[in-house]
Structure formats: C-alpha cells, structure tokens
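Chain X:
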Amino acid sequence: MRNIFVFLLLTTALFGGGYRIPETSLNAVALGAANVAHISGADAAYYNPANMAFMKNEALIELGVIYIGLNNVNYQGSYTSASGATTSGHNINATREDFFIPTLHYVSQGIDGVRLGVSLVTPAGLSKRWQDAPAVYSSEEFTLKTIELNPSIAYRISDTLGAAFGLRAIYTDGVVKSTSPISSRDMSGDSVDFGYNLALSYKPTSELEFALTYRSRVDLTSKGDATLFYRDMTNAFGGGAGATYSSFSSASVSVPVPAILNIAAAYTFPSKTTLEFVYERNYWSAYEELDFNYGSGVDPVTNIVFGNPVAKNFKDTDAFRFGVTQELDALRLMGGVVIDKTPVPNETIGFELPDSDSLSLSLGTRYQITQKINIGLAALYSMREDRRVSNASLQGEYSDANVLIVSSAVEYKF
C-alpha cells in the first residue's frame, strides 16, 4: 500500500473546483469540457456514452497525453496554531508541480443498436507541496494519483433518443506528510472503489442536440499505514513536559469524489459552426469532514492529536461551460470558456487546498490526416482569483494559483 491516504484528496487539482479534473480528453481540453451534447469522437465513451448510439458504425480509439502545470501558489499573512500562538509576516510559495497524464478512449462498432465504450482517465488528483513554515505543519506534501476505468454500454431507443449506462472503478494511490517542531505525520495507502454513470441523448433535429449525464459519487475508502509523532510541551497528557509519543499503525479514511450532473444543449448552424452550453452541478456537500481511523496499535495520545475529525463542510457548486466548434474540411477548430466556483468555504480552507473561483479559456484543433487518422493539439488556461482568507488558523491571501493544461492526441477509426 503506497501513496494515498486520502488526506491527500484535500490537495488535489486546483482547477475544476476542488480536486476534480474535468478535462480528460483532447476535445475536453479544447472546449473546456463543453463536449457533452455534440460529441462524436472516441471520448464520447466518457463524456456522453449515450451519443455512441448515434455515431457512424465504426470503431474508434483515441490515445492522448495531457500535461498539467500548477503554479507555485503564494501565501501572505499570519498563522495561528492550535495552541493559540500567532506568527505574522509570512510570504511563502508552494512548490511548482508538473504532470503528464495518459488517456485512452474507445468506442466499438454497433450491433443491433448497441455500442460499447471504455475510457481510462484520471478524474481527480495532483499534488500540493510546501517547504516553509507554517504550511509544512499541515501540508508538507499531499499527493494524489487516481486512475478510473469506465466501461459503458449505449442503446439507440429511437431515431432521436439514446441512453447509456456505465460502471466506474477508481484506483487511488497517494501520500500525506506534515512536520512541525512538536509533531510529524507520514501516511500512505490505496484503494479501489466503485460507482456508476448514466446518460441520455435527445436529437429532435440534425442541428439541435440535448444531453443529460450523471456520474455517481464515489467514496475513496483508502487503507494504509501511518507513522505519527508528538512531543507534549505543556504536559497536557500527564506524561511530563517534553514527553514524546509515537505510533506506527494501520489507518483508514473515506473521502468522496462528488456526484456530477450535466445538462447540455448544442446547435449546429449551416456554416458548420456548433455552439454548446453545459450547466454542471457538483455535489460537493457530501464532503463534510475528514475523519482518520487508526488501528489498535496506535498510541492513545497520538490518536487524540491526529485522530479527531477535521471539518470540511464543502458546498455544492455550479460550473458553466461554453464551447464552439468550426468544421473546415479536414480541419476542426475549437474554443471554450468555463466559469467555475470553488466548493471550499472560508472557514475550512488551508494549505492543502488553496482553491478559489476561476475563469478558464481554451483553444484546440484537430486535423484529419487520412480517412482513418486524425491528430490534435489543445490548451486550457485556468485563471484563479486571488483569495482572501480569514479563519481560526489563517489571516491572509492566496495568489498565483493559475493552471495550464496542454493535450495532444491521435484518433484512429477502424
């Protein structure tokens, strides 16, 4: 069991609000994930499998690589410890993070109105690392890696209506570390957890398309090991001032990947220009607290220090996605705009996930090399608002949390 102990999940992506990664294909990066109603590529298997029922009767596979670059987030302000001691004048930066993520999407040929699809993606994750106090007291490192295998099946109910059902299997792997003058924590773990997804497509005319998709909540039930250390400087636990307590124990925790509802509409003009709007509802309120559970070998004192539930109280959020596609013979041009809200309330924001509202802009293109092969390149830049924070621990401002995503892919039809 290596590398996740979902305290990690607090750390994840600084785009897509919270720790989700909505952009898991070239089309999704190019259109800001406004590729739900009007989608006919291999990535329909993930974003709207119901549309597979209307696609040409040929198999498609897309292989891609996505680069994600996270700025070195800055914090300026004061910090108040659990004991009530306050230090001010902090001006610290998180470590810059760079990742390369492979993706795969596949759609089978149709048989009697039935199509099969499979996607292999990263739906959440990334990392936040700090090297300076006071951030290292809670968030020296939070790293999350996830892989989702999402098979689906679609059926064409009529000439205008299609439906689909899929299963979600998410493997999670991560690590969390923290170090302060009186305590330290080093945890790792992993898990495989399951959910489902549903999709419905309605095409009343060749120009107008509607879609409804739902991805279920998945609770990441990570299990692993924890090494804990605490020095009691105030004799709060009766062992004497300076008494030390340590534990090596099994540990577990459950953290949700939220349910997501998408309502989408697209219209294609005679000029072969398609406009799409997606309303997205993220049910983050399922994340109420982070509660670690340790095994029987844990020391009672370290269990008290590290085992108390941590309030999160995330709130449900809306995202608004706008995409435009222009077909030009062998060339396709795409662009998108995303307005996204953070689910993290002021009362519980910390160094592990300094999230904020964002505006994202995206561009991309595909070129049809032959009848069977097309290649593409896309980029998305997420501009995060500077965020003032005022709670029991922090009085200051986070800034420079912008994110760059670049995707390249090749799609083959056979």
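Chain Y:
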Amino acid sequence: MVKQLFAAVSLLALAACSSEAPEDTSGDANRIAQDTIIVDGHIDVPYRLDAAWEDVSGSTEKGDFDYNRAVAGGLNAPFMSIYTPAHYDGTEKAKTHAEDMIAIVERMVAEAPTKFRIAKSVADVEQAFADGVIALPLGMENGSPIMGDLENLDYFYERGIRYITLAHSKSNDISDSSYDVNRQWNGLSDFGQSVVQRMNELGIMVDISHVSDDAFWQVMDLAAVPPIATHSSARHFTPGFERNMSDDMIKALANKGGVIMINYGSAFLTEAANKYGPAMDEEYLKYLADNGLEDSTDLKDQFETNYRKTNPYPYATTDDVLDHIDHVVKLAGIDYVGIGSDYDGVGDSLPTGLKDAASYPALVAGLIERGYAEEDIKKILSGNILRVWRTTEAYAASH
C-alpha cells in the first residue's frame, strides 16, 4: 500500500514537472528589442508604395511594415530597398526608377519628419535612435541604375545610397545573377570590378545577395572592405539553391569581416518551401499535357488556387530562422550574422511567428531560449552590420 501511494505521488510530481510552463522570455525580449538599435538589411517598402501609396506613418492594413508595427517591434533602422526590376536593365528607366524609389522615401520623411529620417551614416542612425525617430538608410537593389557610368555611383552616394546589390534576377552590366542561366561574365564584368573598387572608395557597402557564386568569389578577392549579404540565408538548408550562400561562402565572407543577414522568405529557409513552387509548376505542365490544354494566365491562376487547397504551402517557422542563425554562428562565429527579413519583398511566404515588423521581439525571445547572451543578441540585431558600415566609412575617409 505504501509503495502504491509512493508511486502515485511520484506520478503526480512527474506530471506537475512535465506540465510546467516554459520560462517566459517575452519581458526580456521586449526590453532588448526596445533598448537596442535594430537594423534590418532589406525592406521593400518603396516598391510596395510605388504600386499603391499608403500612409505608413500610422497603421496600414496591407504590407508588412508601418510606423506603428515598427515601433511595437523595436525596429528603428530598416534599410529601405531602392529596387529596380531587371526588365529595366540597360534602359534609361533603370536610373529614373531608382530616383523614383528614393523620392518615395523622401516623401515618407517629408510627411512624417517626427517619425522617419533618412540616415546616411552610422552616426545618423545612432542620432535618430537617440531622438526616438526611425532611421531610414537606403540600399540599392540591382546595380543597373549605375548605367555603365561610375559617375552615377557618386550621384547615388550623394542621394543617400549606402549599399548596392550588384545584380538582381538577371545578369546585368556589372555582374551575373544567381537566378540567371546566362553567365555572360563568368562572375563580374570588367566594369563590375571597377564598380566594386569605386564603391569601396566612396563608402558604399558591396552587397553580394543575388549574384552568382563566381561573382561572389571575385568580390571576395577584390573588395578592400568587408562585403555584406543583405538578405540571403544558408544553402545548407536549401541544397542547390544558388541564391543562398554555401558554407564555404559564409566562412569566406566572415574571414573578410562581412555579415550575412538572414532572409525570412520561407523558400530561403526550408527545402520543402524552396521546392514548392517548382513542384507546382511541374504539376501544372502535366495537367496541361494530360488534358490537351494551352497555357493561359486564367488557367494557371485557377490551377494554382486548386493546387494550394490540396497542397498547402509549407510555411517556415521562427525556429527555422533561428536554425539559420545558429548555423552561421557555428560555422563562422557570432560576429558575422544579422537580419535581412525582406519584408514587403517576399509576399505571403513569411514564417509563422515573424509575419511583420512588429515581430522582432519574437526572434529575440527565440534567441534567448536558445542560450544567446544579450551582448550577442545585440550583435545580431545591429552590432555586426554597424561594424561593417563603420569600417566602410573609415576606408572611404582615408581614400
């Protein structure tokens, strides 16, 4: 009887232990997010607003970013992507489109100067943080607005551009793209090499997201200051996806002092999400062939709607983002990883738990739960990328 009673008490104790709530890290996570400069390497607000203007100085129903969500999440230094679609490459529209994107950010600031401020230096970011204003540094996504003329680098530097993603979805006059089978330069063009050198001299960070592997390695050889990957993830989790970075590339970037800023798009994070689109495309082609049908936009839209009902999209999770951060830290160290969410740029593919600019505390909570010290979390949130930016500024000041 005593043994039975002891066993019963033991089972109750075990049940109580197993049902204990996990440690609540939300308080510390919110404190860290609010007390720390958070730099997100890539947010596509300008392109979103170009398609349909919204007043992001308050709350918006659409998109992933607005002032109120940014404040709630502690986001105070999002790089605004000055994105130029590849179909403008080689045309006059490339430059004017980039100017239009900059003008959108300038409008955001002009209409809400107590909430937003363009930042052209690390000092500007720090001052904005001290003043309680969201800093908006500018990064050019796709180098085609340079238009084959190095003087345009100087022009865009004066306009506030502080990094340039050398190419986007197509090979341009600077670099081959990871997305393009046309490798016309086998990496960088001769002009592209001059672009990298001039960017270093001016104080514009070189962004190797989107470029081909050959172009990446050439940048590593050529760059005088650390390059960055503003919105890329680890290829380890998405084998064969060249848009992400291999382990060797991550280590080489770290050896150069650079930073990989993890992209939140589900297709960047898991193999299941990465292969979802190609699998759907393959099924669509099979559907056309089996039924003797010709491709059309309406037919494809209908097929995709039905396909998604029976094959739900495999969204990544906050843990998947944390896995990428862990992977980089194990490969290269804590000093070489950051955040490049690609908010407003990856559509409805964001991970569960990290759906908009209010969610940075959730990432911080996950880092705490995985054992990251507060000092190291702050490096991920901004310390690492600000170090590279300062290094870039110092090199330019001496040349």
